[in-house]
Structure formats: structure tokens, C-alpha cells
Amino acid sequence: MNYNWNWRIFWEVSADGRNSWMMTLVHGLGWTLATALCAGIIALVIGSAIGVIRTTPNRWAVRLGNGYVEIFRNIPLLVQLFLWFFVLPEVLPKAFGDWIKGMTPPWASFVPAVIGLGLFTSSRVAEQVRAGIQALPRGQLLAGTAMGLTLSQVYRYVLLPMAYRIILPPLTSETMNLIKNTSVALTIGLIELTAAARSMQEFTFQVFEAFTAATVIYIIVNLIVVTIMRWVEKHVAVPGFIGPVVAGGAH
Amino acid sequence: MGAFDFGVIERSLSYLFLDGMTFTLKLTAMAALGGIVFGTLLAMMRLSSHRWLSLPATAYVNLMRSIPLLLVIFWFYFLVPYIGGWITGANRPMQVGAFMSSVITFMMFEAAYYSEIMRAGIQSIARGQVWAGYALGLNYWQSMKEIVLPQAFRNMLPILLTQTIILFQDTSLVYVLSITDFLGAASKIAQRDGRLVEMYSFAALVYFVVSFALSYTVKRLQHRIAIVR
Amino acid sequence: MFNPRILLALAVSAGLATPALAQGLTGTLKKIQESGQITIGHRDSSIPFSYYDDKQQVVGYAMDICMNAVNAVKAELKMPNLKVVLNPVTSATRIPLIANGTIDLECGSTTNNLDREKQVGFTNTYFVTANRYVVKKASKVKSLADLKGKTVVSTSGTTNIKWLTEENGKQNMGMSIIPAKDHAEAFLMVETGRAEAFFMDDILLYSLVASSKSPGDYEIGSEAYSVEPYAAMMPREDPAFAKVINTATANLYKSGAINAIYEKWFLKPIPPKGITLNVPMSPQLKKVLATPTNSGEPAEYK
To answer: What HEC string does A62-79 produce?
Structure first.
């Protein structure tokens, strides 16, 4: 094979003449994690709300929640990001659209990426939350109401604390999916980890070194996330209660 | 961007569907088929009592599941010809077209996800059935083929199909390689004519309709299977 | 997962199974003969070199030159029915795809330089252009210095974005550089106001401006930052294939047949919108076509 291996490339100065290629990758990782964190918060908040709505007795609210989940689940993430990045600013009033487009990078790509990833992931979280609540015995809701709690109090003090514990394992894999999915944001100009590896490959022609480094970093991040989530699972576990496993879809 | 011109969609329908959607559907079908076959093999390897079978399969599945699909796409697009050349012993990389390269990429990637589904499917079959098979004189492959896998497939069919809908959506990522799949076709016209709003909205609508219809079908299928059981 | 011993056996048997070819062909030519097809890498929006016309067919100046070279390959191999497969590439994928054998010949707007010659081979230069920027007239940008701290865009994988990144660091310009997938996408960034300037080879900028919705809105910078000789890419260190392609292109240039092709793409209306670029042949290009060269040394194109 006609290929010049050069593993020292990581310590060579990158194209901008300031840092090493290693730092380019580290910056990329930083944006990957920042995007995932912000999108994760949006996904958790909106996803929980929609998930709860889908278990309430109100039929219209349930339909609304189902519609939300179907929309964000049935359009490819890449297309959703294009809608937020390319389409939204053009259909908004001109001044507002221009303001969005005038944001300086990386914010111009970061904000749509966070919104897009957040809402995409929220539909999946909503699905988990709904499944988690419905996995609880119906008696819990009845017992709560019998004790004189209002519906929102039942959710707040009885159903949700248990449901979240049940869905922790699928939420772990959702978190990992979210981190991986941030790479799609490179298509709207965000220089996250995959994009950083790619630009390193373009400038240095060292395809294998660049992609190997990115792969290793993703694996390490994955291991760390799994370890943290296992720790959380253990610390919040209710003694004597083993939650049923909720099946989760993939990436 | 001025007034919108939705006529651009009508003018490019044949390109969008005959070129773009055909590529997307062919890619989805072949990658799903290959992915399920390879995934089932991986699942069987993982459940094997031989460590030298289960360890590599576990490592492969975990590796594929921990890196982003986009990175896998980049990896394979550049790597497949080298691997091909290496396997066939040629002294230069094997020529693999854009289509085959995409099929192999998605097949290898999705196999990791399909294998997790099939593993659950195989484990859902009571072990007694396999022993019953052995007692009847069947060997491992026969009992797998005649007893375990047919049931595992049927039990897991809805989940396998759901994963295939995800695969259908994921194929849009070949956009980054400038390949003319459905999204690629839409984006080429969008950029040539400066009609991003019209084309991307239309693309979103088409993906939604197809995925929604498929997932609705899967849901009905799930009910029917549940009744049969 | 792969058993090395099985692989070795496979490799040996594959080696034995291939019959020795009478003509003794090697490398790319041998591969083309065995597969019965030649794969051409082309671009999305490198107007007028290699791009999609209104019928989604790939056309352009570079495509015409390459088809001429493909005819030479057909004649060399005595295979008049050789199949031509088109494979889309981007600025970022083209070099790895030549290196890994996915494409045999890349026909677009690729700069030949010494850096890239370490990875791929180049045929005789068919165009000479320069790195400039395009801005909206309304932006009042008159020089590189005016772009300090602004958002600019270029196409990823190009010599232009490399230059831009290096210059940004060297001169401490503080520009935010967005990498775009292809030229059309990059130009749209300027058109929609996401980026102030798009740095690219001037000929591509002229074409993008000319085919835009309102060509009068744009201005191309007066200063040229580098010289960019364009050539078709082919696998490196493959003298037999290179000879066929280089002879074909050299004949095309020296016979003057290139002039008609040049006229067709640069002086007459071109698809998809029937615009005319009106770019007469530059003195550098005339010189390069009269004495064909595949040098990657910029000094030779001054």
C-alpha cells in the first residue's frame, strides 16, 4: 500500500499556525460535548413534558404529544438540521432571519445544531418517559389519587421519580446516541470532533491517523459516559425494586 | 431569497425520484438484507460458548456502536477499496463504486444494531426447545435453522423493521460524499437554483410520509403478530 | 474477525487465478481492461469545468478534455465499447478516492501542487487561475484587511481554504472560517448573508456570480493571492496510464483542437442558464497549452 504513515502528525503545527493537530481535535471534542450537553438539556425538558402529556387522561393532549413525536422521529436528523439552518431564517420575517444569519460562528451553526439535535432527541426521550410511566403498575396512580393528591402531585411525587429510575438504562444509550449524532452538525459548519478529524485529513492527507484518533476519542468518551451513568443508576436505585427493562430503539 | 417558487419541485420530480429515491431505496433494501444476515451471524457468535468467537463479535459490535455513523461513512468510503484489495490479494486497491461502497458501509454499521436485536430474539427462545432439538438428533446448525431462528425472526420482526426505517433515514447521510441519493438530488437542485427552502421542505415532507407510513404498517403488523401468539 | 491464514490462502489463490496478460499491461490500464470500465470523478458545481446542467447531466470543459483522453484509452486498449462510469466527488473526497482506486481520473477544478503530487498524479495543466474572494458590493469590503474579524467561507479540501487558514493565523486576522461542502453551497453562504466573503479560484467565482440570481450584486477582489494550475488527477506512479493520458492531452492542446473546446465553455452561452462567461484565454494559459506541462511548481505559471 502506497501510504506514508506519520503518527507524529498530531504534534505538528496545524494549518492555522498556532496549535498542534492534537489541539484541533481537542477543540472539536469540546464542541461535540458542548453541543451534546445543551441539546441534552433541551431533550430532557421537552421530552419529559411531551412524555408526561402522552400519559394523561386528556385525549387531545395525548394526540398532540403523539403528533410531536411522530414528526421529529420520522424526518432524518440531517434534514431536520437543514430545516433549522437553511430554511428557518428564510421563512421568518426578514430582519429576524438576517439577525440569525448574522450570528458569528461557531454560534451560527451551534444554535441550530443544539435546537435540531435537542428536538430530535426529545421525541426519543418522550417515548422513553411515556414507556417508563406506563410500565408502572396502575395502582400507583390510583393509590396516589386515593391519598388526596392532585394529578400533578401524583406525577411529581409518585410516578416520575420511579419512571426516571426505570428508564435510566435507555437514557444512557440515548445520551451516547446524542453525542454521536452531534457529528451530523458538521454538515451545517460546526467544527466538532468528526469535522476536526476531517479537516486534519484534508490538510495533511493523513486519513488513517486522523480517523483513528477520532475513533479512539469517541470510544473513550463512550466509556466515560457509561461509567458515569452506571454510578448514577446505582446511587439512585430504590432498594428492593428492580425496574422492568424498557426496549429502546437505536441511534 | 425572495418569493418562493415551488415549481422547481415539479420540474425536477423525475430526477428526485427516478435517480435519487431509487438509489435511497436500493441502498436501504440491500443494506438491511446484508445487515440482518451479518447481524444474525454476529449475534450467534456472541452467544457462542467459544471465546474466540464471542470476543471478536462483541468487540466489533461495541466498536460500531460507539462511533458516529458519519465517521464510519468516512472510514469505509476510503478504506473499503484497500480492504477489498487486501482480501483478494491484489497489489492495488480494489475498485468499489460509490453505490457498493455505501451498501457495504451501511451493512457493516447496521449489522451491529441488528445483531443486538437478533441476540435478544435468540435469547427469547426457551433453551428447552434447543435441547429438544438435540434430543431429536438435530445438530447445532439444524436446530438453529429449523427451531430458533424462525421464531426469533418472527418475534423480532417489528423491531427489525423499525430499525430498517431508521436505516432508511440514515442513508441520507451519504449527502456528505456528494452521492445522488434522494437528499443528494434535492440538495444539488437546491444549490444550483438557489431554492433551498422549497427543496429541503419537500425532502422533509417526503421522508416524513415514507417513514410514517412504514412505521404505521409496522405497528399494525405488531398487533397481528401479538394476536397470532 | 479475519483469519490471517485464510486470507493468505485467498490471496495466493487469487494471485494464481489471474492469467498473465498477453499485452503485459500494468496498473490502472490493466484494471480498466479487466473491469471493462473506466471511472471518472466529477464535480457538482465547478462551473464551467465539471457540473450538472439543466438535465442533471455532467458537462464541462474538463469533462470534454477527459472524454478525449478516455477515447485515447479506448484506442490504446482496443476497447471501443469501454464503459465510462461517473462518480461524484467533492473537494474533500477527491484525493483519497484517487489514492484508493475508486476513481481512475478526476476531471474538475483541481489545483496541481507539489504537496498533492506526493499523493496523486496530475496530467497536463488545462487551466490557470488564481485565488481571490467574492463579496457583496453592499459589504464595502475592498481588501483582505477589511475582512478582519469577519465570517468567511471556502470549500473544504481546497488549496484556497488551506491558504486562508494559514493566512488567518499568520496575519492574526481573527476571521471565522466556515468550511462548505461544495462551491455552490459556499456561494449560497455569501448570497444569503451568512458569510461576508467566499475565497475560491477566480474563474469559479466568475461562473458562480454569472449564474447567480443577480450577478450585479457581487464584486470579486482585485488582488490575486496565488496561482492555481488546474489539471486532471490520476493515480500516482503509474507511468503507463499517465503516458496515454498525457499524450492525449498534449496532442489536444498542441493541435489547437483545445481552442474550440475553450470557446465552447468560456466564450459562448453555457447550460444550465445560457449565460456567457466571456473569459478570453489568458497569456499564461496560452503558454501552457503551447508547451504542455504537468508541473506542480507555481513559479512555472507566472
So the answer is: HHHHHHHHHHHHCCCHHH
